[in-house]
User: Which sequence fits this backbone?
């Protein structure tokens, strides 16, 4: 998913292992209950509408908040 526009994409309950979201647009994406294992979010953008799994810290994973 490197550089992909995933704006508003529903990834709820997906299993994402070794997935590369480098520079992807995750604004408004829904990742609640997703299993994120060794997933790269370096440079990926997200906003206040993006939903992450409980306890996941997007900033420490390299994502950038844009709003």
Assistant:
């Amino acid at each position: 998913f490197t550089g992909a526009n995933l704006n508003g994409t529903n990834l709820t309950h997906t299993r994402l292992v070794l997935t590369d979201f480098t520079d992807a647009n995750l604004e408004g994406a829904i990742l609640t209950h997703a299993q994120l294992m060794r997933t790269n979010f370096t440079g990926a953008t997200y906003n206040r509408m993006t939903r992450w799994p409980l306890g996941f810290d997007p900033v420490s994973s390299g994502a950038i908040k844009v709003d």
